Each structure stands twice: as structure tokens, then as C-alpha cells.
Please model this.
Amino acid sequence: MKLRAFSGIALTVGILVAGAAYGQQQAPAAAPDLNAVPDKMPFNIPFGTPISYEKAQAVIQAAIAEANKRGWPEDFAVVDVNGDLVAFARMDGAQLASISIAEHKARTAARYRRPTVVFENAVQKFGFNYILSLDDVIASRGGIPLVVDGKIIGAVGCSGGTGSQDEALCKVAAEAAGK
Model:
């Protein structure tokens, strides 16, 4: 009987402590003023000549090499400036749902000329839920435009891990595009 009472008290204390910790989360960042009119167009990177198949393969191979070093099985998609698939790879053991997600992240990054983390932040940090109504947007990090000589040649999308893992691999892939 004493064990049951002690267990009940311990469970109650645990729930109260967890609730207090949850309630002490940091306040959300101040939302940008949506009525502000910027002097320059944000994310106005010009489009260049679409990425070649060979360069797209090199981008994917760089991401795969990094994923192998870290032990993260992922899916990778490289698209051209229109968001159309140029190259794709699925590592052994990568989740199947991430096939289309990787392509979606890449397509969004190319068409909107910005990393998909921008959309994630808009929804998660600032509560701009209208972002979810924009055509073909995915509000999940792991999509990055490929910029060479100041022009977008395509984009890479990585999926299969956490958002931060996906983004880390995309950054390696995007770096390879400039080489």
C-alpha cells in the first residue's frame, strides 16, 4: 500500500515539474512588421542557367558522403530553377515518406528563391499560418537554393532525419554546388 501511495505522489510531482518546465519556455521572438515596406525586394536572387545533371550528381554525392560520415540515411533531391527534378538518391535505410518530401523541399527552395527554414520560422516562431496557404510551400527546413556566381541554378532538398539534420546535409550539398 505504501509503495502505491509513494508511486502516486512521485507521478504527481513529476507531472507538476514537467508542467512548470513546459510553462517556462522562452517567449516567442518579436514578429516582423508585415506592414513595413522594404526598400529592396527580399530574396531577389536572379535565376541563372539551370543546373546540369553532372553538377546535380556531384551535389548529391557530397550530401551522401556527409550523411555516411554521420550515419544518417537520407533522401536527396536536386531540382532546376523551375523546381523540376534533375537528380535524386535514396540511401539504404532512408524512410520512404522522405522521397517526396525531399523533392518538395527542393522545389519550394528553387521557386521561392529562399531556404525552406524561412517558411518554418514564419509558421513556428511568428504564427504566420497564412504561409501554409501559399501554393507548393513546405514549412520544414532542409531545402536550400543552389547559388553559383550570384544566380540560382536550382535547389537541393534533404529529408529523412530531423529538420536540423536535413538542413546540415543541405548546407554541405549547397557548398558543393559552388565548387
